[in-house]
Design a protein that fits this description.
mainly beta, four-stranded antiparallel sheet, four-stranded mixed sheet
Length: 136
């Protein structure tokens, strides 16, 4: 990764300083999908399965989950029995029983000192399965 940054100062002789930041960026975890979209009709089961796979170089365990709001989203975490190497499956469920949109944020607490928390964004869009009433 290589980024250029301009630092502006109040120095009249040199008001702008150009900096260049560079370094290696290594993948810590694979999360599929990276953002959870819960979309569907009121009254139907709406859920998304998220696979969390630690990179071999940075193994970690997940010791807990929490939600910012938790009003319209539920989640259940379990180890992925089909994979080898400590992958996890996170089931994210819609709990909203009315038409509308919402968002939340799932925080996964890990055993890693490098990244003790992993955040997953959740967006919901629940539709009414009733026909819309037309106005006179």
């Amino acid at each position: 990764m290589r980024e250029k940054i301009v630092v502006r100062t109040n120095d009249p002789d040199k008001p702008n300083h150009n900096l260049e930041v560079f370094g290696n960026v290594e993948k810590f975890v694979t999360i599929r999908p990276g953002i959870v979209l819960l979309t569907g009709d009121v009254g139907k089961e709406i859920k998304v399965l998220v696979r969390i796979i630690p990179e071999d170089k940075y193994p970690f365990g997940i010791v807990g989950t929490s939600l910012i709001r938790g009003k319209y989203v539920g989640c259940e975490l379990k180890e992925d029995d089909e994979s080898k190497g400590g992958a996890y499956l996170l089931t994210v469920l819609n709990l909203k029983n009315k038409r509308g949109r919402y968002s939340d944020l799932i925080t996964l607490k890990t055993t890693s000192k490098i990244r003790p928390e992993i955040k997953i964004k959740v967006y919901g869009n629940i539709f009414s399965n009733e026909p819309r009433k037309s106005e006179p």
